Amino acid sequence: MLTKTKFWSLIALGFFALFPIWAPVMWNHLATEIFIIALFAMSLNMILGRGGLPSFGHACFYCVGGYTVAMLMMKLRLPFGIAMIAAPIMAAIFAAIIGYFSVRLTGIHFAILTLGFSQLVWAVAHKWYGFTKGDDGITGIPVPQALQGIIPYYYFVLAILIACLALIWIIQNSPFGSTIVAIRENRERVTFSGLKVWHHLWLNFTIGGFFAGLAGSLLVLLNRAVFPDFGYWTKSAGVVLMCIFGGVGVFIGPIIGAAIITLLEHYIAIYTFYWQFALGCLIIVLVIFLPGGICGYIENKLRGEKKITEEISYASQSGGS
Amino acid sequence: MKIKISLAGLMGSAIVLALLLAIPGDVLAQKAKALPPIKIGIPQSLSGMVSDYALEDLEGFRVKIDEVNEKGGVRTKEGKRKIELLVRDDMLKPDVAVKNAKELILERKCDFLVGMISSGVLLAVSEWCRENKVLLWAWDARTHHATQGRGHRYLFRSAGDTWMNGHAAASFWKDQPYTKWGFINQDYAYGRSQYETFTIAMKKMKPGFTIVTEQWPKLGSTDFTPFITALMAAAPEALYTTLWGTDAMTFIKQAKGYGLFDKMKVCGLFWGMPLLRPMGAEMVEGVYCMTEWPFVYPGSRENKAFMDAYRNRTGQFPSDYSVLGYNAATFVVAGIEKAGTVNTEPLIDALEGISIKTIAPAKTITIRKCDHQADYGICMGKSKKSPEWPWFILEDVVVIPGGPTMRPCEEIMAERAKAK
Amino acid sequence: MSSEVLFFQFLSGLTTGMIYFLIAAGLTLILGVLKIMNFAQGGIYMLGAYTAYTFMKQFGGTNLGFWLTLIIAPTAVAVFFTLLEVLLMRLFYEKVALYMLLLTYGILIVAYDLARMIWGWIIKTAPMPPMFHRSVEIFGRPFPLYNVFLIIMGFFLFFLIWFLIRRTTWGKMMRAAADDREMTASLGLNVPLIFSSVFALGAWIAAMGGALVAPMGGMAADMGIDAGIIAFIVVVIAGLGSLPGALLAAFICGEVMAFGILILPELAIAFIYLVLVVVLILRPWGIFGKPVIIK
């Protein structure tokens, strides 16, 4: 049975599968980068959108994934396959540790805690010159023969992205996923129903970290380099922005947000040196007028509903308790 | 729970598609001229603390390019071609720099790249250029690793590197009576490189050389007081520092109050115009400043012409960074004229071993064949108040030629072979 | 290492700590009462420094000019940001924390480029007023008089604000609004006005911090980004809303920096992050903060 969802998904798949054939080389690079960042944003949205927890330290897991691949391949000369598997696992371990201390809090406290931990990881990556080569970063990471050249790598990343999206979809539509949403809506009630709130949130956080680590490792292989600022707090803020911009309540919201923001950053920076001014104004306009993000806005328009100024049943806590 | 993505999905994909189609799509509608301009991509770090240095590199480069364009362009086999510059800011982020390089070469079809001020960015972009066989001309980023162990055919550098800086400083200080040295450098690749090369050189050249203390403030520190007191507690005879930008200014202002400059001789690398000018009257006298262009020196005609041209263009006096940019442009233009083309391989062949006349500090500079590094020298002078200018100038200027401070080719080739 | 050297290092740490306190004090106030993580705080600090630079230069670097600048510059910057608060931020107090976080982040990066657009890209330094071109003798060694001034100013500002919070009616209203917004409103007090006044004070302290630091060294537009993180660390260690906590935490961080440099020069900054993480694990609400319900 070909539902609407499946139909449009196939169209999108077809489009991106044929894309490299006609697109100029640079667009392949951009598209690959967008796929990776989209995965990063989707991983955050599991915690932020579905889980209702404002994580401002998500770049940490992205960074850990990237460094794991880089260090395993450069220092230990491990093959690509092993490094790629190890990276998200390592990121998940970090997420499990940080999540352990963080998910018992909510709102602003959660944001601060995740921000603090991620800055610590950044500081270590930045300072521990002997281990991570500090702010020099690690460059010249070898790419396996089969993936050399942007076209093979494009398809590789696309395949991984599709697999991950499918996985995330399954997770979010499972009983586990429904519990997460329920916790977001009304934590107390879920507690009374006997389900272990903390365990669910912790597991969700860890899974989010896993996919972020995978995204980080993919980016490292695209650029052949990793740097500590993969984990700097402005990157965390950036990916939060992408989710909000695209719309946290919609499955592909983060993907749209990632695509648009990445393209905007790329092209605005070409035309003006003051692109941060433009981005800042965009953020301000966005939070005031489009709290549901682009996808949320479009959805509402299509249904003819009046614009919902409060987020699509986001979190139940009031501003920063 | 039904997932309501279908319509949103459609709209979303449409937006992405529209953006992908509308925004790029080579807007450079080239009028069918007889000879298209030569396009030089300029990946540079224009944000943050390096801003003004980076801009001066660029402006110096532009002065020369304007001169050439006014005469109709640079001579190639096909005829005269004008030069067009496409500038991109990477905000000191190596991955953005690589993305810019890709965009400039793959999308905008630039003929080659000139730029670089940050060592970290240079290493990343250099890797990419090596793999993609793109000529990269570094006008400012200094890490010696870029042309030594990590050097390759496609990278050229017209500025003196950290190895040369350290050895140049040592060649001056070995004749001075100070053996107990303190160090304060910013804790990142550049600071570490400079510390490394100066200490290596001094150990070779100065018997009795000892490191009494080393301080490593991070880039952009607002407060140097703990470092200053630690330095003074260790009481070295002389202090070598490669602090630059706001860090240098903050350090000097704060150290003054502690009487640091009375207790030890201070030698600052690259403490030329970019520092002296904003410091103005707050600078300290008697500080040893190393700079590639000491403002009132040389008094040559070419120097004056350059200063006037630069002031006409920017309204400001130039600095050693402007000269770096100007020299880079002179090299590149000379190379194109010698090769007759901008095609990468013949251009590289033409640039190897090429010499140009320069303003300062020497009369000519040459690109060495084995590592594509220029034998750029440096000057050492002592800071002094000036009645004519609102900033301090340098007196007792000594020129240290670049050639002898370079690392021997055999050592570099050996290091490269080991790295494989 | 002689005791004089240690004492000097201690004084250095005190100076550094005071700078950290000035940056963090406003943030802890805003966090404690308004419950918002003001990412723009670093930007306010930075614009305070730049504005002070302009005024000090305009006044010709004189002593009188310096004092006038300290009165005018932070006030001007605080007014500007309070206007932003009234126009933009007020919309978000009732909403989820996330939007406010993004809004303040947006304001921060706008402030950054605004500084570059207005003041240009060249690094600058404000002229040190002539009266501070001297040092005091401590144990026979010179210590900059300006540092002494800064430390005294820090304490003065601390007591001023503490007095405002603890001993005035306004302070009482502010604490009430911090504890229970709705109740305070239902008692007839104008909560938005109280919030704005708290924000104004928080911004004023940060801008004053920037102005005080301006003659001490060079400034570039990105000084705000770094300052923001330091403020954040100090506030988290101290506990949201605790002013004495902020002073103590800033002091601890300053001394950790000062002595860390003597012990392990390269890792001085890492020590502070270590303190942060220990606090985050053991007492995530900070040393002096109110414990948050942990599920």
Structure description:
The complex is a heterotrimer of chains A (321), B (420) and C (295). With 321 residues, chain A is an all-alpha fold. Chain A has one domain: ABC transporter involved in vitamin B12 uptake, BtuC. Chain A contains 14 helices and 2 strands; from the N terminus they run ααααααβααααβαααα. Chain A has helices at 4-22, 25-50, 59-74, 80-102, 107-127, 129-132, 150-173, 175-185, 187-192, 197-223, 233-246, 253-271, 275-289, 293-303, and strands at residues 138-139, 225-226. The model of chain A is unreliable at 306-321 (pLDDT under 50). Chain B is built from 14 helices and 16 strands. In chain B, α10 (273-279) links the parallel β11 and β12. In chain B, α5 (162-173) packs parallel to α6. Chain C is mainly alpha-helical. Chain C has one domain. Helix content of chain C is 72%, strand content 4%. Chain C has helices at residues 3-34, 41-58, 63-87, 97-119, 145-167, 169-179, 181-186, 191-213, 223-238, 243-263, 268-282, and strands at 124-125, 135-138, 141-144, 218-219. In chain C, strands 1-4 form a two-stranded antiparallel sheet. In chain C, strands 2-3 form a two-stranded antiparallel ribbon. In chain C, α1 packs parallel to α5 and α1 (3-34) runs antiparallel to α10 (243-263). The radius of gyration of chain C is 19 Å and the shape is globular. Classes of the chains: A mainly alpha (321), B alpha/beta (420), C mainly alpha (295). Chains A and B meet through α1, α2, α12 and α14 of A and α1, α3 and α4 of B.
End-to-end span of chain C in angstroms? 49 Å
Shape, principal axes of CA atoms of chain A: globular
Shape of chain C: globular
Q: Quick one: biggest sheet of chain A? A: 2 strands, antiparallel
Query: How many helical stretches of chain C?
Result: 11
In total, the number of strands of chain A is 2
> What's the helical proportion of residues of chain A?
over 70%
Oligomer: heterotrimer
- Strand residues, percent of chain C: under 5%
Number of helices of chain A: 14
